[in-house]
Amino acid sequence: MSQAVVDRLREHFGERILDASDAFGDHEVVVGEGDWSDVASFIKDDESILMDHFTDLTAVDHPERPDARFDVLLLMRSSSTGARIRVRTQVAEGKELASLSALWPAANWAEREVYDMFGISFAGHPDMRRILLYDEFVGHPLRKDYPIDRAQPLVPYRDVEEIEKLPPFGIEEGQPFARIDWEARLAGGDAQVSPAIGLQQGQRRTLSDSEAAQQLQERLAARKAAEAVAAEPSTAEEGSGE
Amino acid sequence: MEPADELLEEESALELPTEPMRLNMGPSHPAMHGTIRMVLDLDGEKILNLDIQPGYLHRGFEKSCERGTWAQVFPYADRLNYVSPMLNNVGWSLAVEKLLDIEVPERCQYYRVILGELSRIADHFTCNGASAMELGAFTPFLWLLKVRDWIWDLLEKETGARMTHSFGRIGGMAAPPTDTLKDDLKALVPEIHNVVKEAEIMLLRNRIFLDRMQGVGILTKENALAFGCTGPVARASGVAYDVRKDDPYMVYDRFDFEVPVGQDGDNWDRFMVRLEEIRQSVRIIEQAMEQMPDDGPVNVDDPRIVFPEKDDVYTTIEATIAHFKLVMEGLRTPKGEVYSFTEGGNGELGFYIVSDGSGTPYRVRVRPPCWYNLSACREMLMGDMIADIIPTFGSINMIGGECDR
Amino acid sequence: MPTFKLDGREIPFEPGETVIQAAWRAGIEIPHYCWHPGLSIAANCRMCLVHVTSGRQMAMPQLEFDAEKGEYVPATKPKLQPSCQLAAAEDMEVSSTNEEVKAAQASVQEFLLLNHPVDCPICDQAGECKLQDYYYEHQGTLKRKLTEPVHKPKGVRFGPTIVYDAERCIMCTRCIRVSDEVAKDHVLDMRERGNRNEIVLAPGRELDHKYTLMTEHVCPVGALTSSDFRFKARVWFLKSGQGVCTGCATGCNSHVDYDPRYGKVYRLRPRDNEDVNKFWMCDDGMMTYTRHDQDRLTTPTRGRGADRVPLGDAAAIAEAAGLLGGVDADKIAVVFSAQHTTEDNLALAKLAEALGTTQLYLAALGGWEGDDILRSDDNNPNRAGAIAAAGSELRTTADLLADVQSGAVQGVLALGWASTEQLEELAPLVSLDAVVSLTSHVGALAAVASVAIPVADVFEIDGSFTNEKGMAQSFGAVLSPPAGVEPGWKTVAALAKALGHDLGFDAVEQVRAALSDNVEAAQ
Fold it and tell me: What are C72's strand-pairing partners?
């Protein structure tokens, strides 16, 4: 059922479907950000797909990918066939993605939430405001580099002009035991002592020594070069002549 | 508006001013429960435009999930839809179990179904009772809520807590069913039936109730789909979609039950769908009670997923290590992304989870059913009267914890 | 390039290398307890068993239960080999993850835990214990042996630094081999057999060589614990920064393990560096972290002895500038520090250049004994860096005292707390009015100073040391300095500004740029 949707999309879009998978039984296609609205309107209107039941639209932050920082995901269901599909695209920070709110009005709030939480703007959205947080909120909290214990400045009562602004919170408060300090991690720090936790956080095994590995590679390359020179004396002479 | 005596000075000024009036409803308004603010543009009592502003109960659920272990999400999940926390617990368990590719023993699946359906009954009774109360009928509210109390008594006996149970576990439940579960259910189920009947006697022929429910807050089937509505809201609009029927999970495919569907998509249909779903949930519980094995394991047999028995933890090193690893580092999931969805109290409760292969979720996205139901609320109310907001908003059953996360 | 296949992946190796070592260099860990890249091969833990799937298969006879016959019948199973002792060969195919190997790993793991005490809650190794990690990865079953475990001695004092728990020990003999091969002192050995096996000291000895903490460092379980770190912290709360040991001129690379909640360093661990310290550090080096919070100077002071009073930060700089400004520039002695980073010393050199003084000295520690393993004869981490920063030979503090007495020096600007001389020997400096000490700790130089200004300690700054081989090694800050305290180079720059010279140093990058200019100029 859902596989048929993937096949139909492959058939219609060909190379523009960058990837398709069904890991854990969830059917997914990956499209370029330029094809986002084309694919969306196609799955909405195509006779054999008819994805009319909006399920969800959300994003995932991968700060280690500067060219395509965010995954944006559209989850849809067809009320006639019961098929489900997940469409994924990647967006760089600061880039806009086409809004789908004209296709399904539910995308209106979903895109506002993604904007609120990740700072991804949607081009053509009728009402690009924050939705869960207030206008004075600084930053986008579901980004990985937003520390969970960051204190926001206090907002003065809005209607009163010239009010003395209360000082922001003092020392950092909140949840100092977060397992990953993403700011430090992105800066290359935040090594964990406990190896199992460290491994979870992307550290190499404690004993592995990349420098030694590199030296070995260099030694091996040098030996290979020496062997090549020994095997082909004529080319070696030409090489040394230069 | 200016005082009337000022206007009387000139005859023509008897006409009321016609520019729209802007009115703030909520967030501190008794009918805006769950803390919602609506900014209304009114022409007299008619709603010209409204802007629904959620977020007053935003606590950073999704961000908080990214800092603990997979198992530490349960207490947060309880506080999503806090009217039916057991359904959220089960939803979260199933999501992580999908990622781990494990299935819990059958006894546990039945146990989850029974506790979940009890939660659903409590949820629907609360919603319907509150809807009636907001229209001035206080007796039905108390009458229906007493069922919720009975259910909570039973859940307290099973889980140890009345409301936020945190009873789900990845790979099972925190404890096996008590010996008295079936007897308690047998005593409780006929009572639930009676109360549903009494509710119908009290409300279905009440003129005020009918007038304010019927034909008000209409949502068409097409809009219900396009707005992503699910659960009773979508079913009242004629969308025969129930995850338990369409994508059966656990043992739901073994039960004989029906999915009630409305015709008009108005408040009345939403009220009636919920009332009928209570009956269907009772049917499911009755069947599950029959089919559920009386003994057998509740949890999967893997100390790397489920906590070992405390006796073992205190006396053997293997269980100590397993306990230590589960607490300090969390159970390790395979790398990947899954979307798992169940029928929550308000519709499709989805968890989109991303795992980087560690003991901590990389990203947890909740697809809150009432988020989309609420976004359709504007569509239901445009052109209606200001007083219609109260029954319509009530029939959405917006739960702040789930909507705002 | 010869390669072999490990689990389908091509692994390059040098002839003579073992499978586990080649895999380790390629970043793959085959589970192991007794093998260590810096030690000889013991092959006694049997955790690293692998299955060589190419070539003629070795079969091992065993009995298998036949359910039909109801009795045991002869059968064979593939013979597994320890990858730590198995030399890699061209085109060999090795599996470390197939069913036979998994079964062997699970069994070895279960065997090692048979008599293990339930100690995780009180064990310092918990959180970085291989028994725990491999249990979760390779065993994952509950206990089957329900009899009382074998009891052995616990909490045995091996020496001033190490406590031994025989029940936790898995007899990998790493500690014995570290003593033999790194410290060249056969002070540990093993006695008894089977489950009565335990590590013992040589009769009449205790574990007191210079590398005892390495035995604890290599211990894969919690059998050997350091008396210093014991019961102080739980490792999952610790974060780790990269440091360079300040103990001597070898400049061993270290992990600085600290608790971010309290801003406190709990221990150092050696950080692998093939060119400097391999995998090791000496005991004295490991303990240098304790200097950090002992005798810290946190507020600037003025006056000496009983007249010493605290000052504000800005006032201290102004006071120091006032005192130094009152002395002829060419009579100011600038004292560099072999304990401070090259950056700090460079800023000082720039200030000396700006002042126009040529009276340059070097304060350093003394009284230390080197060896031919790791320890250098010079117990200052940055003598070479300080001399390079100054750009010329530096005279000693003894020369300084002579110059003070002869009147050639009338003002002193000194960096650091370290000096070879004791407080009494530095007494002549008290006769001068203008003695300014920039120091992280209270030392003899700070005691005789008329103005002492605190600077950040080595754990609180980004900096670099040049070791005796001339290798510049940089390290990063792990803690924040006490309120109001700045890195040495910054304090020197502020002082220079107060004296009317702008060094142009606002960020550590600018100092480093100046440093590389210096290096280029020297070449």
Answer: C65
